[in-house]
Design brief:
It contains 6 helices and 7 strands; from the N terminus they run E-H-E-H-H-E-E-H-E-H-E-E-H. By secondary structure, it is α/β, with parallel strands linked by helices. It has one domain (3-164): Rossmann fold, CATH 3.40.50.360. The chain binds flavin mononucleotide.
Length: 173
């Protein structure tokens, strides 16, 4: 059993990204992992944007990343990149915070052409935070969210992530 943190930039639970996150969380729980959800939108906005690590909620958010064995990063594609919520959250973290952790990127978008945003926007951001075990993620078209095809693709992505998960012996950054 591993500790998995899902960083979600969904604007709401019912939004496409929120639905994708809920599906993957259920699959990971069914696989026996402890899954926590970090809804970035619920963090105190001013403290998030000013990187106020003295704010207990911000400190807790950072600590939850640093203690996770694996991290799922889920974001809608906005303006050909990731949501600003993802960037704001990752900016809080130490430079190489994702090193040694399995990372699964997930994205939703309105146009298939923006699949490339995962490669040219999200992956470089994750790499800048030291991510060296990035599992092939999944891009889900918003019109396909909830479909059998997208569920199967997300199940496969979750399986790849599970295969990469190893409990960390020392929970440090
Ligand atoms: C401000 C904004 C910008 C968007 N930009 C893009 C884009 O560049 N490429 C794309 O494929 N979809 C784009 N979309 C569509 C969303 O990525 C898509 O509807 C997604 O599923 C929304 O997920 P959410 O409801 O969880 O935010 C945009 C949506 C919004 C609201």
């Amino acid at each position: 059993m591993s500790d998995v943190l899902i960083i979600s930039a969904a604007p709401s639970h019912a939004a496409p990204t929120g639905v994708v996150v809920e599906h993957v969380a259920e699959v990971l729980r069914a696989a026996g992992h402890r899954v926590s959800l970090l809804d970035v939108r619920s963090l105190p906005t001013l403290s998030l944007l000013t990187e106020d690590l003295r704010d207990p909620e911000i400190a807790q958010a950072v600590s939850s990343v640093l203690s996770a064995d694996g991290v799922v990063v889920a974001s809608p594609v906005y303006r050909a990149a990731y949501s600003g919520l993802v960037k704001a959250l990752l900016d809080l973290l130490p430079k190489k915070a994702l090193r040694g952790r399995a990372v699964l990127p997930l994205a939703t978008g309105g146009s298939q052409g923006f699949l490339v945003a995962m490669d040219y926007a999200l992956h470089p951001l994750l790499a800048a935070k030291g991510a060296d075990q990035v599992v092939r993620g999944e891009f889900v078209l918003d019109q396909n969210v909830g479909s059998a095809d997208s569920a199967a693709a997300l199940d496969a992505a979750a399986d790849r992530f599970c295969a990469q998960l190893t409990p960390r012996l020392r929970k440090v950054s």
